[in-house]
Amino acid sequence: MTTASSTLILGGARSGKSRFAEQRVIDSGLERHYVATGRAWDEEMRARIDQHKADRGDLWTTHEKPLDLVGQLAAIDGEGRAVLVDCLTLWVTNLMMEERDMTAEFAALAAHVPRAKARLVIVSNEVGLGIVPDNRMAREFRDHAGRLHQMIAAVAADVYFIAAGLPLKMKG
Prior knowledge:
The protein is α/β, with parallel strands linked by helices. The protein has one domain: 3-Layer(aba) Sandwich (Rossmann fold), CATH 3.40.50. 44% of the residues lie in helices and 24% in strands. The protein has six helices and seven strands; from the N terminus they run E-H-E-H-E-H-E-H-H-E-H-E-E. Strands 3-2-4-5-1-6-7 form a seven-stranded mixed beta sheet, sandwiched between helices. A hairpin with a 2-residue loop joins strand 6 (158-163) and strand 7. The longest helix is centred in the C-terminal third of the chain and has 20 residues, at 136-155. The model has no long low-confidence stretch (mean pLDDT 94).
């Protein structure tokens, strides 16, 4: 893997996408950075975050950035580094909860991805494969996530879809 490239990894919950993403970073041999966008809104989420940290171990530098994703990516960008972002859908949730300008935030990320010097591996949940959500906020979330995925897929060098732990290469 070259340093200056990017991969978007999509899949459903518990599909194996994070494990696949982590392995890509490990296989790169580059300095490992993990940008976590999740927030611990409750004890169950706090336990999930703690388990993810324990699973990764001490060979990763973790950056917890629920909102300023692009700022964090810019701050740690550099050759010889691999940066895993997990995940875009949690970032979308955080942006919605803070009533941020989704168009501007998404455009900033889409502009950063192809310019990054670090190897970027970006994880997100594919949420558009199920039934139409029954409430406005959930529909807006699904729509925001779908638009963001299209934008990042357009600028990423590689795109994978993961199902049942199996990767399907869609681009690259």
